[in-house]
Write a structure and sequence with these properties.
- This protein is of the alpha/beta class and about 140 residues long.
- About 35% of the residues lie in helices and about 20% in strands.
- The protein has a five-stranded parallel sheet with strand order 2-1-3-4-5, with helices on both faces.
- Strand 3, helix 4 (about 80-90) and strand 4 (about 95-100) form a beta-alpha-beta unit.
- The structure holds 1,3,4-trihydroxy-5-OXO-cyclohexanecarboxylic acid.
- 1,3,4-trihydroxy-5-OXO-cyclohexanecarboxylic acid binds next to loops.
Length: about 140
């Protein structure tokens, strides 16, 4: 099985982007960590990032059509996009929402997620280890 790890806007800039909030790990580090954990668990993983909402919606449609499990950090779209929510709602596999930072300890607008109630599980505040935890959960059993 291939677990899709889908990342939204600005996450390609990890490492240089607000390191006090998001840490010093780069996007390449995030991809490597996901691949490492997937390898340990015997699953394939495909890690993607886009700053295009249309592209993310297309990926979610593909996951819905394929029955894929998805780990998603929708970044700012989490708090703004009904379109991303509607696409995520179509995923029938396990859907895990991940945020690097603890969004609940930040600005009030980050406390609302359009995804959490359609997600199977939510992981926040664990940095890139949150992705590792999400992949282990998806790969369970
Ligand atoms: C984020 C949190 C969001 O509020 C923010 O817009 C991001 C990253 C996180 O991983 O902590 O871009 O999803």
């Amino acid at each position: 099985m291939t677990v899709l790890v889908l990342n939204g806007p600005n996450l390609g800039r990890l490492g240089v982007r607000e390191p006090d909030v998001y840490g010093t790990a780069t996007y390449a580090d995030l991809v490597a960590r996901c691949e490492q954990v997937a390898g340990e668990r015997g699953v394939d993983v495909e890690v993607r990032q886009t700053d295009s909402e249309a592209e993310m919606i297309g990926w979610l449609h593909g996951a819905a059509d394929d029955g894929s499990d998805v780990v998603i950090n929708a970044a700012a779209w989490t708090h703004t996009s009904v379109a991303i929510r509607d696409a995520a709602s179509q995923v029938t596999g396990t859907l895990v929402e991940v945020h690097l930072s603890n969004v609940h300890a930040r600005e009030a607008f980050r406390h609302t997620s359009y995804l959490s109630d359609v997600a199977t599980a939510v992981v926040v505040g664990m940095g890139i280890e949150g992705y590792a935890a999400a992949i282990r959960f998806v790969a369970r059993a």
